[in-house]
Amino acid sequence: MTNETIGVELKTFENKEKNALLLKLLPLTLTVIVVLLDQLSKVLVINNIPVNDLSSGYWFFGDFLRIIHVQNPGVAFSLGHGLSNQVRHILFGFAPLIVIAWALVVYFRNNTFTQLQRWAICGIIGGGLGNLYDRFFRVDGVVDFIDVKFYGLFGLERWPTFNVADAIILICGFLLVVSFLRTVKDE
């Protein structure tokens, strides 16, 4: 093997490494976009709709979709809203922060995720960071504003109010699960 051949192989290896890193970094743009869209939408709601005033806001398709302004000191479905501020801060702030940090470590160490799985993971991380921002920097909790009629399904007349981060977490979580199931099926 000549020095020239070794040099070509080394450059090929370096190019593959750069491409692999780029394929891992590119989906992180979704993380940034989700955080920005989530926070921008929350600022618009905070500045334009009074909190907990269900008669104000914006209504679409009759009462199917309402844009209102509520504060959620708990987590999904307001779970934990009755806990003390210190306990909520630890459980709903620091614990998810640790999970997000762990997810990022796994994300960068794993070389078997598909691109769809990488984009889905980054969307989930972006949604998590958007809500974490609220938990750390908004005294009254996470800003929720999307309120959808649920027509009595599962005993709910309206689905619990949510935000952009929650919607992205749900959509990307669904895509991630379907992608993992498809990968298992293919193997």
Description:
It is built from 5 helices and 3 strands, in the order ααββααβα. The mean pLDDT is 86. The protein starts with a helix and ends with a helix. Helix content is 61%, strand content 10%. The protein has a 3-stranded antiparallel β-sheet. The protein has helices at residues 3-25, 28-48, 85-109, 115-137, 164-186, and strands at residues 58-60, 65-72, 142-148. With 187 residues, it is mostly helical. A hairpin with a 4-residue loop joins strand 1 (58-60) and strand 2.
Number of helices: 5
N- to C-terminal separation?
A: 38 Å
Q: What order do the strands of the largest sheet run in, or round the barrel if closed? A: 1-2-3
Briefly note the structural class of the backbone: mainly alpha
Whole-number average pLDDT? 86
Shape field: elongated
Q: Output the radius of gyration.
A: 21 Å
Detail the poorly predicted runs. none
Order of helices and strands: HHEEHHEH
What helical percentage do the residues reach?
A: 55-70%
Number of strands: 3
Q: Biggest β-sheet: count, sense, barrel?
A: 3 strands, antiparallel
DSSP strand (E) fraction? 5-15%
